[in-house]
Amino acid sequence: MVQCAMRYYSTRSKNNPVNFAAAALTGLAPDGGLFIPEEIPQYPKAALSSLGTMDYRDISFETIKPYVQSEIPASVLEDMVQSAYPFEAPLVGVGDRLILELFHGPTAAFKDFGARFMARAFAYLRRNEEKPLHILVATSGDTGGAVADGFFEVEGISVTVLYPKGRITPLQERQIAGLGGNISALAVEGSFDDCQRLVKAALADENLKKKMVLSSANSINISRLIPQAAYYTAAAGIPGITLCVPSGNFGNLTAGLYAMKMGAPIRQFIAATNINKTVPDYLTSGEYQARTSQATISNAMDVGAPSNFERMAAHFSWEEMRRIILGVSVSDEETRETITRVHSEYGYFLDPHSAVGWKGVDKLQGMPEVTGPVGILSTAHPAKFAETVEPLVGHAPVPDSLARAMQRTIHSQTIPADVSALLEKFL
Ligand SMILES: *Cc1c(COP(=O)(O)O)cnc(C)c1O
Description:
- By secondary structure, the protein is α/β, with parallel strands linked by helices.
- About 45% of the residues lie in helices and about 15% in strands.
- α6 packs parallel to α7, α10 crosses α11 and α15 crosses α16.
- The protein is globular.
- Pyridoxal-5'-phosphate binds next to α11.
């Protein structure tokens, strides 16, 4: 059987379609847009009818396959999902809600799901290249660790992670700047939005492009987004579930939208943000207004100009988005109160991001859209944010991978938040 490759377009123009390899390896389209698939494929009926009992790796395989077929052979993809996901995405009951625990990977946040597939896909797609690939990635905290861990010691690929100095936790900093080897770390004197701006500018810089083969690994990269759709589909083993997604850059929620469009029986999404509520405000008003990000205790969501919004807007009108997504915003005070209350009522530890999700559901409870089973994506392990969690509810058990990371020494350089300072490091 001849398989057609999926084509990917820029969110800004339908003129220059590329294949998966090009979309993944270049990260950002030449016109500054984000790559999106020309169509969202449909899950086979047989897969949808057996979701409740399917193995997570098999769901991943079915999810990713149509996006990469003819470029990554099925047997290679099979090996990739087996080796990328030696852990689960369990749905656990807490009171009358479900928590989709996405923190059982090596860096204890959901970003492991995207980064671990991406690293394997990049290594495979570049298997015949001689020039090394350099990946630039901006992080608000968790992306950097997941990408660093995913690509650590991958041959022919080096990574530079930019993070906002002083705005990530000591553990996150060790996950990013403690590996060494092919992973470099830059502490930027600015916000996450500054880091993201620097990366975008460097990726577009003609001189730099002449000198090295560059790519990005942010959630703007389609190869991170697609594998994340799999855990939404796994959660839809409970058909008609409403899923609340603690959101910052909106890559995670966009992956959920893909899962739903592929046919996963998800009833409704809730997009819960901290006070950086650009998207909830858009859902209310229909007017998109990016802002400067503000620091909160859910720092991986401190994003005022969420880059994946461009992808959401390319697939859905405002009216459609409003039907599928309820927006809600949660303050730091409400987040702390929620961590305390959920622990005292159920003995369950929530990290600050997941607590934003829990509180978001509280705030919308009673709306007709929020009846039936409700699941909250737990995007990070509580021990990852011990600075916030411990004073409120004591010590959450620490996974081994985090205990090991805490022992590492930080090796990073500080740069001001301007593009020339970043370019100087390479040119
Ligand atoms: C990255 C991150 C988020 C936000 O995810 P987006 O895809 O950027 O919306 C939420 N929680 C945690 C713990 C994260 O690391």
